[in-house]
Amino acid sequence: EPLGVEPEEEAGGDEEEDTAQAMERAEAGEAGGSPGAPGPEEPGGLAWLVPEGSSSSRVIVHVDLDCFYAQVEMISNPELKGKPLGVQQKYLVVTCNYEARKLGVKKLMNVRDAKEKCPQLVLVNGEDLTRYREMSYKVTELLEEFSPVVERLGFDENFVDLTEMVERRLQQLQSDELSALTVSGHVYNNQYINLHDIVHIRLLVGSQIAAEMREAMYNQLGLTGCAGVASNKLLAKLVSGVFKPNQQTVLLPETSQVLIQNLSHVREMPGIGYKTAKRLEALGISSVHDLQTFSPKILEKELGISVAQRIQKLSFGEDNSPVTPSGPPQSFSEEDSFKKCSSEVEAKNKIEELLASLLNRVCQDGRKPHTIRLVIRRYSSENHCSRESRQCPIPSHLIQKLGTGNCDVMTPMVDILMKLFRNMVNVKMPFHLTLLSVCLCNLKTLNTPKKGTIDYYLTPSLSTTSRSGKRSFKMKDSHTEDF
DNA sequence: TGGGGTTAT
DNA sequence: ATAACCC
User: Fold this and answer.
1) Which tens digits make up the pLDDT trace of A165-182?
2) What is the largest CA-CA distance in chain A?
3) Under DSSP, is residue A21 helix (H, G, I), strand (E, B) or coil?
4) CA A70 distance to own-chain centroid
5) Does residue A129 lie within 7 Å of nucleic acid chain B, judged by its CB?
């Protein structure tokens, strides 16, 4: 028994619809034979299997924690384990554990509806994201130990590019071990594995690494989650959700079409959001097949060439986007929503609260934000989603003081924010806001070297000859830049 | 609908 | 600065 480990806990028949759906037999492409594959394994290593870098096929894993906020709460307070638990933000149950789901509670359900459905539901407040954020980064850091190429998606999902790690393991493999190679977890659509097919072999090794990742997450952090292994991010993400709590699935290339054809609507395709789905609907496109067969020219005219080409490739399961290492966050923000804020002092008090938390966070991070932004949402019956913002550079004398606790940086920063506020809101007129948010961004690691100095030319991101693949510091230019 | 995040235009 | 996307 090599590497595979399956913390298959939660067992007890608590499968979701997704699982049942996935179980139904669908056509399995050209499963089985792989025409071009070399003959059976021969002694002398596996070098023939690995056509030196010529393989453009990748191995990607998508790791998706089970009801993340609820898990963190149950770790904080173990007495909550076994009870139906919901995490509340304002009047919403934003997520809940599987006990609660069995009793009919859904994500983003109104608290009233949830209590009605499930009177025994235990609710904890989840408006302060601090512990979730911290645990989230612990997960990402754990995954980075396997391979440094980890991309975060929200707080509870990560992509990891396993291609190189798989390649290394394959080169260590002895040829007599090849016939004993096994998958860890489920194989999508129960497809047959062909050990003569190098692509299958690589994905199987990927599934074993995925199992090790989940085992490490459970042993070191106490967290369970799902994983999907496939040849690109789109497919890895779609397949990770096939068997749902705390299980993993690998997708072999022959069944990628059945995976995407099983989506009942284009909206379910990651990358096609609310707006694009509406526009597609107006064109009569609702199924994945509709999108696959729609005229590319017309689609480009309707959506622009960039979106059109990208989503049409997605509809075929094609996604060449790289796993981009997220690194440290690009921005820190805190927001608060409420029924009504209609006076300047009220706004100022909320803004002070938001800023105070942010300053603590940015202080712990160590880098310095060079831009500050204020975001508001105005009350309006329709157009609920729209926000307005104003941003400006942070004066350099304030940036310097940011790490040094005792100096009062709050007052001048609040003054700046209130100027931004009055720039957006005419305080002489009645107003009604439902959200305030403060964002610190444009983070820089060091006091940026002055032009003309030795340091300037030694700083990769500033020097004209810089073309390093490593992104130790990225200094994105913005038209709101200071200097 | 919350309280976050990202990239593209 | 906004708009789209993701969770």
Assistant:
1) 999 999 999 999 999 999
2) 84
3) helix
4) 17
5) yes
d(CA A230, CA A63): 12
User: Distance in angstroms, CA of A435 to C1' of C4?
Assistant: 20
Assigned token pair, A183: 């998958």
Residues A383-420: b if buried by 16+ CB within 10 A, e if exposed: eeeeeeebbbbbeeebbebbbeeeeebeeebbebbbeb
Of all nucleotides, the one whose C1′ comes closest to residue A329's CA is B5
pLDDT above 50 (res A231): yes
Residue nearest to nucleotide B8 (CA to C1'): A306
Closest nucleotide relative to residue A375's CA, C1' based: C1
Task: Look up the protein residue whose alpha carbon has the minimum distance to the C1' of C7.
Answer: A154
Nucleotide nearest to A328 (CA to C1'): B5
Note the CA–C1' distance, A335 to B8, in angstroms. Answer: 24
Tokens representing residue A110 in the block: 């109104």
pTM here is 0.86
In whole angstroms, C3 C1' to A182 CA is 46
Q: Is A157 a catalytic residue?
A: yes
Q: Which of A111, A107, A116 is nearest to A154 (CA)?
A: A107
- Angle in degrees, CA A444, A445, A448, rounded to 5: 70
The tokens for A42 are 């021969």
CB A210 within 8 A of CB A248: yes
Q: How far is it, in rounded angstroms, from Cα A20 to Cα A43?
A: 43
Q: Say how far A271 CA is from C5 C1', in Å.
A: 6
Cα–Cα distance measured from residue A113 to residue A118, given in angstroms and rounded to the nearest whole number: 8
Q: What are residue A339's phi and psi, to 5 degrees?
A: -70, -45
**Residues A84 and A99: beta-carbon distance below 8 Å:** yes
Spacing of A390 CA from B9 C1' in Å:
18
C-alpha to C-alpha distances, A49 to A199, A201, A204, A255, nearest whole angstrom: 10, 10, 14, 22
> Helix crossing, A198-216 with A130-146: angle to 10°?
140
Across A273-289, average pLDDT: 98
Residue A112 pLDDT > 90, yes or no? Answer: yes
CA separation (Å) from A18 to A24, A151, A153, A243? 10, 25, 21, 7
Q: For residue A5, what pLDDT band results from cuts at 50, 70 and 90?
A: very low
Protein residue minimizing CA–C1' distance to B1: A108
Q: Which nucleotides of C are covered by protein (CB under 7 A)?
A: 1-7
The C-alpha atoms of residue A343 and residue A458 are separated, in whole angstroms, by 50
Which of A73, A157, A254, A334 is an active site residue? A157
